[in-house]
Amino acid sequence: MKFDRKFLNTIQSLLPVQIFLCYCFVISSLIVNFAQLLICIFIWPFSKQIYRRINYYLGTLLWSQLTFLYSWWADSNVTVYVDPQDLKHLQHEYSIILVNHRYEIDWLLGLVVVQELALLGGLKIVGKRSLSLIPILGWSWFFSESIFLRRIWESDKKVLEHHIRQLLNGYPDNYYFSFLMACEGTRFTEPKRLESMKYAREKNLPELKYHILPRTRGSTVVLVFEAPDNLVFNVKPGDPIKLGQSLCDLDRQNDIDVQDIKQDGNTSSTLSTEETQSSNEEDENLNIENEEKNIDRELLIDTVALDAAIVDADAIANTDVITDQEVKLNITDE
User: Fold this and answer.
1) What b/e string do you get for 262-288 counting C-beta neighbours within 10 Å, with b at 16 or more?
2) Which of 298, 247, 302, 265 is nearest to 101 (CA)?
3) Which of 113, 133, 176, 192 is exposed most, by the fewest CB atoms within 10 A?
4) Contacts from 158-161 at CB under 8 Å and sequence distance 24+?
5) Which DSSP string do the residues of 186-214 spell out, in sequence order?
6) How far apart are CA 78 and CA 70, in angstroms?
């Protein structure tokens, strides 16, 4: 059932509605935290696998309330552009979501994507220790075996090694976790942007206009220790596609199929694909139109799992919307 957006906005603006939603979130989340505490005391010492299975669903109960605010309250959508080959592995492998930390709640975007892949319960973060003290959210991260660092490398290295080895030792079959990481030094400011572009020129890396090149030491350690034989992470410093390449450049290297992830139920996801079709004449017209409009189509890229990128569809020029659920991008090899 689809409601009129103006009617929903009116309902959402009512103070009693806002208080009621806050009350529901706080009470239900505290109940989840208490349940997590109980299983940590009574189940963790005897069976880590059972603990992780139960906590997987408890985490989903808590985090889905936040994704509800993003998708329903804010009426926002996320379009994910991903290689179809990688799409086959996203729900069956451990993964890392590497984002630039530009705004206070930009991490919520990562939650939405992970939920669409039915992996929300296995979400973990790598963050500073003070985050574990935040009521409700921090407590849930703690019980979900997130990794908290002091930002002192000698001690943090040991913490990373210990926690990742512990996670990989005895994690339940057919249960997978994702690490959400906001790299150190990526909070966007103009001085940092200029410093980042200077560093990129010195190291022969792409100069990003909307992102800061991350400090990768910690994430490199995670990749090394989190890679069992059946897992390949394509997240590496210096990869021009990961670090932000325009769609204009990408279309000269590979055909790109666009997957629009849409929700089907609370935790499941349905993936629809529209194959890209374009003639040489259309491609030439596309380039001419871009030159006339001087459209900057730099891909605002945050590495998501394997080779996936989250972008705002409105920021991409020449995107044809087939339906409200399907998107295709007219891109071909030259």
Assistant:
1) bbeeebebebeebebebeeeebeebee
2) 302
3) 133
4) 160/126, 160/218, 160/221, 160/222, 160/225, 161/221, 161/225
5) -S--HHHHHHHHHHHHHTT----SS--PP
6) 10
Residue 292, phi then psi, degrees to nearest 5: -65, -40
Q: Could you give the CA distance from residue 157 to residue 47 in angstroms, rounded to a whole number?
A: 27
* Tokens read off for 79: 């379009």
pLDDT tens for residues 28-50? 999 999 999 999 999 999 999 99
Q: Give the CA distances from residue 57 to residues 64, 96, 205, 259, 285, in Å, rounded to whole numbers and listed in that order.
A: 10, 20, 41, 27, 50
Q: What angle do CA 194, 128, 40 make, to 5 degrees?
A: 155
Residue found under tokens 């603006």? 13
Give the CB-side neighbour count of residue 168, counting CA atoms within 13 A: 20
How far CA 74 is from CA of 68, 78, 190, 314, in Å, comes to 9, 12, 28, 16
Domain ranges within the chain, ordered by starting residue: 77-119+176-329
Determine the Cα–Cα distance for residues 297 and 73; give it in Å rounded to an integer: 29
Rounded Cα distance, 220 and 96, in Å: 11
pLDDT of residue 55: 96
Other C-beta atoms closer than 10 Å to the C-beta of 58 total 19
Predicted confidence (pLDDT) per residue in 291-333, tens digit: 443 333 332 233 332 233 333 333 333 333 323 333 333 323 3
Coil, strand or helix at 179: strand
First to last CA, the chain: 44
